[in-house]
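Q: Here's a chain of 116 amino acids. Please give me its 3D structure as tokens.
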Amino acid sequence: MKQLAILLFLGISSLGYSQTMEDSHHSTIGYIKDNGTVEDAHHSTIGYIKDNGTVEDSHHSTIGYIKDNGTLEDSHHSTIGYIKDNGTVEDSHHSTIGYIKDNGTMEDSHHSTIGY
């Protein structure tokens, strides 16, 4: 579940273009390639985000889905969260767990920067 949450949270803001992911200290923690491949800091593949919103692990097993309406689902299609149009990230109970800013900054629910 943690892997799915990380892939979804980091990947949702960068679908469609290549991006370097950084932690709050600007250390590179991974990459999302143009083709949806998600890599760790050492360029090892850790997952894939498909054009249709399917999220896969490194073995191409489906671990979740990103729906067009911003709903995040696990592999059993149970809702685990939401990404709102304004970048707010919510859990399945609609409690805010973070924010994805237009500039690519990721914040926790207290607006502390957790990544870029």
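Q: Can you summarize the key feature?
A: The chain has one domain: 2-115.
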